[in-house]
Amino acid sequence: MLDWITNTITAFNYWGIALLMFLENIIPPIPSELIMPLAGFTVTQGKLVFWGVVVAGTVGSLLGALPWYYVSRRLGENRLKQWIDQYGKWLKLNSEDINKSQDWFMKYGAAVVLFGRLIPGIRTFISVPAGLQKMPFIEFIGYSLIGSLCWNLLLTYAGFVLGQNYGLVEKFLGPVAAVVLVGLALFFIVWVVQRKRQ
Predict the structure, then answer these.
(1) Could you say which DSSP state residue 134 is in?
(2) Angle of helix 169-197 versus helix 137-162 axis, rounded to 10
(3) Distance (Å) of CA 107 to CA 133, 171, 185, 190, 191
(4) What is the tens place of the pLDDT at every residue in 159-170?
(5) 136: alpha, beta or left, given left = phi > 0 and alpha = psi -120 to 50?
(6) What is d(CA 110, CA 120) in angstroms, rounded to the nearest whole number?
(7) Where do the DSSP E strands lie in the chain?
(8) What single DSSP character describes residue 136?
(9) Are 22 and 109 in contact (CB under 8 A)?
(10) Which residue windows are transmembrane per the record (predicted)?
(11) How far apart are CA 168 and CA 37, in angstroms?
(12) Which of 53, 91, 122, 194 is deepest in the core (most CB within 10 A)?
C-alpha cells in the first residue's frame, strides 16, 4: 500500500494526491493518515509546495465525499443497505456501518459532517447519513470543506515536521480522535441545554 501511494504521488504530484484522497473517501482501506503525511514529507524535499499539497488533498476529499452523498440521497436507506449487503464486502462496508453513521447524524446533527471529517473510520461514512437525511448540498459541502481542510492541514503539517518519520503520524491520531469525540459530546450537551432553556 505504502509503495503504491508513494509511486502515485511521485508520478502525478498534486494530481496524484487529489486522486488518492478522492479514493480514500470512497474506499475506506486507503488511509489519508499515510497519504497526506507522505505528501507533507515531499514538501521538505522541495518537490512540492505545502499549500499546494493541502489544496490538492482537500479538493480530492471533497470530490470523494460526493459519490456516497448522492448515492445515499438517490437510493434511500433500504435500497442502499441491500446494495451494501450485496457488494459492500469489496469496500469493507456492511449495513451496520450505515446504521452507526445514521445514529451519529441523528444524535449530533449536521455538525457531525464537520467533526466526522476529523475522525478516522467515520470520515468515509459520514456522507451517507447526510445524503439519506437529504442535508442541503451547500451545507454539506461547507461542513465537508472546513473539516477536510483542517484534517489535511494537520496531516500535511505532521508529515512536514516529522520528515522521514511521517509513519509515526498514525500513532498520534488516537488521542486526536479522542479529543474530537469529546469536543463533539460537549457540543451536543451545550446544544441540548440551550434547547431545554428555550
Answers:
(1) T
(2) 150
(3) 13, 28, 10, 13, 11
(4) 888 776 655 555
(5) beta
(6) 18
(7) none
(8) -
(9) no
(10) 12-30, 50-71, 140-160, 172-193
(11) 9
(12) 53
> Can you tell me the distance from the alpha carbon of 60 to that of 77, in angstroms, rounded to the nearest whole number?
26
Q: Whole-angstrom Cα distance, residue 83 to residue 95?
A: 9
Residue 28's contacts (CB-CB under 8 Å, 6 or more residues apart) are 91, 92, 93, 121, 124, 125
Q: Computed from CA positions of residues 107, 113, 116, 118, in that sequence, does the dihedral angle turn out positive or negative?
A: negative
The amino acid at 142: G
C-alpha cell at 46: 522541495
Is the Cβ–Cβ distance between 21 and 152 less than 8 Å? yes
Report yes or no: 96 and 40 within 8 Å, Cβ to Cβ. Answer: no
Domain ranges in the chain are: 2-197
In this structure, the number of other CB atoms found within 10 A of the CB of residue 195 comes to: 8
- Tell me the torsion sign for CA atoms 149, 153, 155, 156: positive
The residue type of 186 is L
What pTM, to 2 d.p., does this model score? 0.75
**pLDDT tens column, 83-118:** 777 776 666 677 777 777 777 777 777 778 888 887
Cell 461514512: give the residue. Answer: 125
Q: What is the predicted pLDDT for the residue at 195?
A: 63
